[in-house]
Structures are given as C-alpha cells and as structure tokens.
Design brief:
About 60% of the residues lie in helices and about 0% in strands. Helix 1 packs antiparallel against helix 2 and helix 2 packs antiparallel against helix 3. The longest helix is centred in the first third of the chain and has 14 residues. The radius of gyration is 22 Å and the shape is elongated. By secondary structure, it is mostly helical.
Amino acid sequence: MRQIKFTEEEIAQLKYESIYHKHALVRRRMQALLLKAEGLSHTKIGEIQGICPTTLRKYLDAFLDGAKGERVEALKELNYKGKPNRLMEKKDEIIAYLEKNPPATQK
C-alpha cells in the first residue's frame, strides 16, 4: 500500500474537484484520492468506487508523478484520443452528393 501525505490544500482541491469538475472520470479519480486521504484501504476504496486495484494504482501513480503543488492537476489529464471517424474519409463525396441531391424536406 502506498503511503501518501496530503497537504490541506490538496485535500481542499480534491473535495472541490470531486464534486464540480466537468468530466466524470476526473471526479471519480478525485473521489478515490479523497478516500485515500481519509485513510481507507485500497480494498475498501476499490469496493466503494467500483474499480479494480490496477486502476486505483494508476490514479495514485498519476497523483504521485505530478510536480510538487501540481499533483491534483495531474489527475485532470485525459489522454483519450478517441477513434477515427470513418465518415471523415468520405467527407468530400458526401458533400458533393448532398449538393447535387439536396434533401426534399427537413425531416
């Protein structure tokens, strides 16, 4: 189990972001770290959050890898690139077709 010392400022940030951040994944990360700050075991945090131990370790590592004073900010990074949109490959063809054959109704 990782031993982490949280500052009062970090705990206040975690409390705020766990409620008000716009992205659900970031809120979940903040909540997990907040539970860690309260002294709960990794097993208990996993049960409460519904996450596996590996996911919790990733959250903790991201927090610990953050620069001093920026550890909470490190949890906000979303590195998901998404999948490429296959329609974009045919974008020009679709536009040309619609310009030649505009829809008859707005429906």
